[in-house]
Amino acid sequence: MKYQNPVVRGMYPDPSVCRAGDKYYMVCSTFQYFPGVPLFESVDMVNWKQIGHCITRKSQLDLEKAQTTTGVYAPTIRYHKGRFYMVTTNVSVDRNFYIYTDDIYGEWSEPVFVEQGGIDPSLYFEDDRCFFISNGEDENGVSCIRMCEIEIETGRKLSETKPLWYGTGGRYIEAPHLYKFGKYYYILDAEGGTEYGHMVNYARSESMWGPFESCPENPVLTNRNLGGYQLQGAGHGDVVEDKNGNWWFMHLAFRQIDRWQPFHHLGREVCLVPVHWKDDWFYMGEDGTARLSYDLPQIPGKQEPLDFCKTFANLDVKTDWCFFRDYQAEKYEFGTDCLKIKASADDIFGLGYPSCAAIRQSELEMDIACQIESRCKEAGISIFMDEKHHYDLFLNDAGEVVLRYTIGCVSKEMVTRSVNIDKVKFCIKADALHYHFFIEGMEEELGCADTKYLSSEVAMGFTGVMVCLYAVDADEKIAVFTDFSLTHEEAVK
Ligand code: 6LW
């Protein structure tokens, strides 16, 4: 098997994976976006297809107060006795909960809350008992991984919460998972922060509650010493054994924009590295680093090329489109060649429910095009990182084309064409370093802006850039989007 990382591209952070029979299932964080927690299926760990979302109803998740980077943090997916469980934190209300389903293609349950704090919850099943693990602090305020036993039907705690492991001393101990492989229990974490110093560590014990012995080779995965390498920030992930006895670590990492520019704006993406064992210790990747490509001749199969021409005809509202805090279906009319959006007064600078359909920018180089017909206050395309970092190309209610750059406390609007039109086709050409803005048919660009000002290093936070089609107007006018395409030459060769 030859494959390239990331195996799932664009903002899909904090992957967790489980095996159920011959198939694998993966979930990721979604923060303020709705539906929440995308769910992927694979038969070989390398090729992933999104089959839906775990969170599809407002009753499962209240994101009303969720700004960018709050809301849903790292989820864990587990399969036990015919039932799938997805456990996560809603950071906006500071609560951990899980939902479950017996039909992976169907709806998931209402939330079951667990009264243990911290983030990055995980579940460990042993026979009919269930243990709940998360990060947090001990009684002296020292950061650690903690665990309690719960009653899986109700979420009720059956034991007190006790510290399990204090990690290796890196900052921000998080992303815990407990496993039993052979005779040992393994407690895995991520430390160092989800930036350039991110790393994966673990420890083992013959007892579930420890004491744990740290792996002598920790960190077992980190790219922190690979200066100038495109893939950085390797960390937070989940270990899985496949049906053929191969071991893998599925984890997050990000692609930086240039060898000498330590910025990334696409968010954290899903990568896969092989795992091997020695003396009941496991080791990851290439000498503990995550690489952009792997050639594993002992594993059959091949990575399928990704479909990189996305249009209204092949995008699915159930899997591809994301909305801010809730999906208010009555505002959107999705057709195979057209999207009609009923504008709302809420804009993309604040909270609320802007009329906005968003899709992840999944490649550094992409061409984005869309025709917009509107007399809304504004309607157009936003290249959106968060409320304070976005580039917007839109038509206003005077029929003018406006390009607006918003970077932190500076927002600059340029009327680039004052032509009194109500229909225009916009094109945005993204390369790793810049966005170039055009009107179709005009050779001269309207403007050009750096990708790095939308990066996680500038904007902070945990999300990545989304391409948004949006409309703002207090009178709820309709904006019509046609001829939409999001293309990339060839991501995986
Ligand atoms: C997540 C934490 C992290 O909960 O980022 O990479 C946080 N690690 O574990 C949000 O994605």
Quick take:
With 493 residues, the chain is mostly beta strands. It has two domains: 2-295, Tachylectin-2, Chain A (5 Propeller), CATH 2.115.10; 309-488, Jelly Rolls.
Task: Detail the topology: elements first, then pairings.
Blueprint: E1 2-4, E2 16-20, E3 23-27, E4 33-34, E5 36-42, E6 49-55, E7 76-80, E8 83-90, E9 95-101, E10 112-114, E11 122-126, E12 129-137, E13 143-150, E14 162-165, E15 174-181, E16 184-191, E17 199-205, E18 213-214, E19 231-232, E20 237-241, E21 247-255, E22 269-278, E23 281-284, E24 293-295, E25 309-311, E26 323-324, E27 332-334, E28 338-342, E29 355-360, E30 366-373, E31 378-386, E32 389-396, E33 400-407, E34 410-418, E35 423-430, E36 434-439, E37 447-450, H1 456-459, E38 466-472, E39 478-487
What does this structure look like?
With 493 residues, this protein is mainly β. The protein folds into two domains: 294 residues, Glycosyl hydrolase domain, family 43 (Tachylectin-2, Chain A, 5 Propeller); 180 residues, Jelly Rolls (Sandwich). It is built from one helix and 39 strands. The strands form nine sheets. Strands 25, 27, 28, 30, 35, 36, 37 and 39 form an eight-stranded antiparallel sheet that branches. A hairpin with a 2-residue loop joins strand 31 and strand 32. The longest helix has 4 residues. The model has no long low-confidence stretch (mean pLDDT 96). Bound molecules: (Z)-L-Arabinonhydroximo-1,4-lactone (6LW).
